[in-house]
Amino acid sequence: MLTDATQTVRGRPSALTRLREMILRGMLQPGERLLEVELAERLDMSRTPIRQALPALALEGLVVPAGGRGYAVRAFTRAESLDALHLRAMLEGYAARSIVLAGKGRDVADRLAVLLAEGDALLSAAALSDTLEEKYGVLNERFHDVVVEGAGNSLLKDLIGRCNVVPFTSPKVIAFEETEEEEILELMRFAHRQHHAIVNAFRAGDALRVEMLFREHATTQESSMAMGETLRRAL
Q1: DSSP state, 220?
Q2: Which residue has the higher pLDDT, 95 or 170?
């Protein structure tokens, strides 16, 4: 049975989900003490789900114990984010290769083709907007999720999930505040062209190539990280 910390109430995200997103978005700063009363007021919920969510966030590595039974937002270094990104790329590459070796490449390619079409339509826009950026972040996450789910490996899925809670690592991360909008849009288009190459490799049944393409795909996100230290959007 789900606890209050993870239960979605009346269509609203759970306390755990909302606090996780606040941390990844930078709404809760590294080192900031997490006070149940203040968080309950901000999220318009009781203290109980907040109290239950904090230990779960500690298990994810997003918060650390601070003073008695309290918690504070964990401060991640850029090196830790890069390590998590590279590890995620290797794990997703392994997932993609295992899909091809299991003879499921074309089936997964068919599912991904739907997302390619959605991405093509989104990125045909002449200029970047917050809505476009948000929608593509969600679409990018869906693309990666199809591959992870397609591998049918629960341990692999858990390991990738652990990587994704490290700031700047999730497929939903798009870019940083110090980057010009034109550069962000071009980066998104380049990443989407990589998606097309990945789908082609799945259709061709090329296990080695699809694995290498996923590893190369991470360098696009790494390029974003080099543009600035402040996250623009991590949903």
Answers
A1: H
A2: 95
